[in-house]
Amino acid sequence: MVGFEVAGGAGAVRELAGRWLTRVADGDGGDFVVSPVGLWLALVAVASGARGRTGEELAGLLGVEGEAAARAVTEVGRWLGGTDGVAVATGVWSTMPILDGFRRGLPGVGFGVLPGAAYQALPDSVFGATDDMSSGEIPDAQEELDAWVRRVTGGRMSSLPLDLEGSEDLVLLNALALKASWRTAFPAHLTRDEPFTDGSGVTRPVPTMRQRIPAAWVRYVDGVAVVELPCEGGARVRFALGAEGAGPRDVLPAAWAGDGDGAGPRERTPLAADSVDLLLPRFTLRTKTDVRPHLDALGVRLALGPEADFSGISAADMYIDKVLQEAVVEVAEEGVEAAAVTQVTMTRTGAAPRPTVVERIAFDRPFGVVVLDGDGEVPLFVGWRQDTP
């Protein structure tokens, strides 16, 4: 955790997660899954090349800027990659020469060239000698970037969140993937249909896993039941169940609530049981999120228009044109798999014995799922199951 603290701290990601959640939850009211740390890493990489008021504005959302932002990309990437079952990578493709200072500040980031680049203007160190290149030899960037996504996510994502249009001047991608097995798998023979009532009040039978778990795996935070299922390796997975009618903004933050989360004191109620009969639907969440309007609502405006100052990236004037994220979480009897790809497109601008008590917790209504780092402090993936699985 030391590297993450030097890079700006887990609190910066939790802060972004909480603020972003208010925007994501205001969408169509259905299911969603996002990766706060994936978005944070992508924007921090861009912010490392922001200057002046643009850098200050991004720092207000991300907690770091300039050289500190560049260090954060490297240190957090290494820290995440050191967690068993987690893979993370960042890449930048551009039509324009990228400043050497930006490249040196991001030693763990790969760089490539987009078709449509003014090849004769690119130094040989970027793309080699291009004088003899015919138009037929120009690489297919869509195919190259899609292949990068598949490789980094282990095939969990097949392509970019948003296809290239040919007008992009810079594309920055961050990919995050996780595969973890439960320490104690759900017995497959116990999975059977149980009723699930969705957000609109409709009840349907859904395949539901079950197992008895220790009471120590459960806690109540501000009235929200938080169940943590230990995984082999480093990640932690928590499921959050609120009162009937509770929405994601009220429920999900309880999954990463802690003494240092900046949210103030939270009421914790001990579990008055020795064990818990857990009923959890088997489910998959996959959503694509347009993040750009959320950034505007969160106070990032200069970076999104012609007045942006990204002079630390390139001599050309650029601004953030699009920010898309696609994420998936799959929960089954054996464990959890998750992946997210964040795409930023930039355009030039211009203790006594007692009788055994068993509590029953059935995730039979809308609930949240949060995948955290091994210390249980950084939300890697945050999802909400609103509809019937």
Structure, explained:
Helix 3 (about 35-45) packs antiparallel against helix 4 and helix 3 packs antiparallel against helix 5 (about 65-80). It contains ten helices and 17 strands. It has helices at about 1-5, 10-25, 35-45, 50-60, 65-80, 100-105, 125, 140-150, 250, 290-295; strands at about 30-35, 85-95, 110-115, 170-180, 190-195, 205-215, 220, 225-230, 235-240, 270, 275-280, 285-290, 320-330, 335-350, 360, 365-370, 380-385. About 25% of the residues lie in helices and about 30% in strands. It has about 400 residues and is α+β, with helices and mostly antiparallel strands. Residues about 120-140 and about 260-265 have low confidence and may be disordered. The radius of gyration is 22 Å and the shape is elongated. The strands form three sheets. A seven-stranded antiparallel beta sheet has the order 1-17-16-9-8-7-10. A six-stranded mixed beta sheet has the order 3-2-4-14-13-12, sandwiched between helices. The chain folds into two domains: about 1-180 and about 285-350, Antithrombin, subunit I, domain 2 (Antithrombin, Chain I, domain 2, 2-Layer Sandwich); about 190-285 and about 355-385, Alpha-1-antitrypsin, domain 1 (Roll). The two termini are about 35 Å apart.
Reading the helices and strands in chain order gives HHEHHHEHEHHEEEEEEHEEEHEEEEE
Question: Measured on Cα atoms, how large is the radius of gyration?
Answer: 22 Å
The CATH architecture of the largest domain can be named as 2-Layer Sandwich
Overall structural class, as computed from helix and strand content, comes to alpha+beta
User: Can you tell me the overall shape?
Assistant: elongated
The parts where pLDDT drops under 50 for at least 5 residues are 118-138, 259-264
Number of domains: 2
Number of helices in the DSSP assignment: 10
CATH fold name of the largest domain: Antithrombin, Chain I, domain 2
Helix content: 10-25%
How widely separated are the two ends?
Answer: 35 Å
Average the pLDDT over all residues and give the rounded result: 86
Oligomer: single chain
Strands side by side in the biggest sheet: 1-17-16-9-8-7-10
| Relative strand content | 25-35%
What's the CATH H-level homologous superfamily of the largest domain? Answer: Antithrombin, subunit I, domain 2
**How would a textbook summarize the main sheet?**
7 strands, antiparallel
Strand tally: 17
The CATH first-level class of the largest domain comes to Alpha Beta
